């Protein structure tokens, strides 16, 4: 019996009172003669048999095959673990890619929202304010030939660009005027002048720059020379825009007495300044307050 320890054996047992014997295959791990048990490691697990029930023991030759089978099972479990690890890594990668896309999208939306909000605030808060409207008639005092529009930015407005500002005039037709920046020679009375001549406002500019599609500008208050140097209209600046109505209203050669027209001063950014000009029925002087 001692020689069977550690060997793979075929053990035939028969319990008292049973008519049929049972066959158990496994490795004999130990034999306890005092208590009368045999410790056997079989496919069902580790168990013990009473020596008194053992009918026969036969050493077997399938020990190596049994270990091969067990090794195969161990390798199979290892393959399942590797597959689970691969799936886990794939899930982590997918989650990281999804998180990256979400973060990038949120950053893009945040930057876009910031830009739109900033532009909206500038659009709402900026704009031009029309301070005064003054006309200048012809020598016969029958028509208004020139119109002076005093303009400054609204309260809290960003700086405005006169060069990008347009004047819309609706009379017999729609006329759009822009600044004539091609003749910007203040010494000769160009499209922008930083000082008023001795003959007055309406003689300051060179009238050749005041056409049916262009207007001129006179810097009335420009402490930093932003108007004359870069066409910029700051919060403390005041500019007077001169429009040649005799060229804009070519059919009537100006605005006759009793006539009226509607106009808008449209900056590049911000709200427009709206004005309404109504000529009186008679002109007492050449300079007319409108």
Description of the molecule:
The chain is an alpha+beta fold. The protein has two domains: 2-65, SH3 type barrels (Roll), CATH 2.30.30.520; 128-289, no CATH class. Helices cover 25% and strands 37% of the residues. The protein has helices at 63-125, 226-230, 245-248, and strands at residues 8-13, 22-32, 37-42, 45-50, 54-59, 128-137, 143-153, 160-161, 166-170, 174-179, 192-193, 214-221, 232-233, 238-244, 255-256, 260-266, 273-278, 287-289. The strands form three sheets. Strands 6, 7, 9, 10, 11, 12, 14, 15, 16, 17 and 18 form an eleven-stranded mixed β-sheet that branches. A five-stranded antiparallel β-sheet has the order 4-3-2-1-5, with no helix packed on it. Strand 3 (37-42) and strand 4 (45-50) form a beta hairpin. It is rod-shaped. Mean pLDDT is 83; it is low at 63-69 and 183-189.
Give the SSE layout.
Blueprint: E1 8-13, E2 22-32, E3 37-42, E4 45-50, E5 54-59, H1 63-125, E6 128-137, E7 143-153, E8 160-161, E9 166-170, E10 174-179, E11 192-193, E12 214-221, H2 226-230, E13 232-233, E14 238-244, H3 245-248, E15 255-256, E16 260-266, E17 273-278, E18 287-289
Parallel strand pairs: 10-12, 11-12
Antiparallel strand pairs: 1-2, 1-5, 2-3, 3-4, 6-7, 6-18, 7-14, 7-15, 8-13, 9-10, 9-16, 12-14, 16-17
């Amino acid at each position: 019996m001692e020689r069977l320890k550690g060997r793979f054996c075929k053990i035939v047992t028969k319990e008292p009172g049973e008519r049929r014997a049972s066959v158990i295959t496994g490795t004999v791990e130990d034999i306890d003669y005092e208590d009368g048990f045999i410790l056997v490691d079989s496919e069902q697990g580790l168990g013990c048999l009473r020596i008194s029930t053992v009918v026969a023991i036969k050493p077997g030759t399938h020990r190596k095959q049994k270990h091969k089978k067990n090794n195969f099972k161990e390798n199979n479990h290892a393959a399942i673990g590797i597959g689970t690890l691969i799936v886990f890594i794939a899930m982590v990668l997918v989650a990281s890619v999804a998180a990256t896309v979400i973060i990038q999208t949120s950053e893009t939306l945040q930057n876009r929202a910031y830009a739109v909000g900033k532009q909206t605030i500038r659009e709402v808060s900026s704009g031009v304010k029309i301070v005064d409207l003054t006309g200048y008639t012809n020598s016969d005092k029958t028509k208004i030939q020139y119109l002076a529009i005093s303009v400054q930015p609204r309260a809290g407005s960003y700086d405005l660009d006169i060069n990008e500002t347009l004047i819309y005039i609706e009379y017999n037709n729609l006329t759009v005027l822009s600044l004539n920046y091609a003749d910007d020679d203040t010494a000769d009375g160009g499209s922008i002048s930083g000082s008023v001549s001795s003959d007055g406002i309406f003689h300051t500019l060179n009238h050749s720059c005041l056409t049916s599609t262009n207007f001129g500008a006179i810097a009335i208050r420009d402490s930093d020379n932003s108007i004359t140097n870069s066409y910029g209209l700051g919060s403390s600046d005041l500019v007077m825009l001169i429009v040649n109505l005799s060229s804009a209203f070519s059919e009537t050669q100006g605005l006759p007495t009793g006539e009226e027209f509607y106009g808008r001063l449209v900056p590049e950014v911000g709200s427009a300044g709206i004005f309404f000009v109504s000529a009186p029925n008679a002109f007492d002087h050449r300079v007319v307050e409108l």
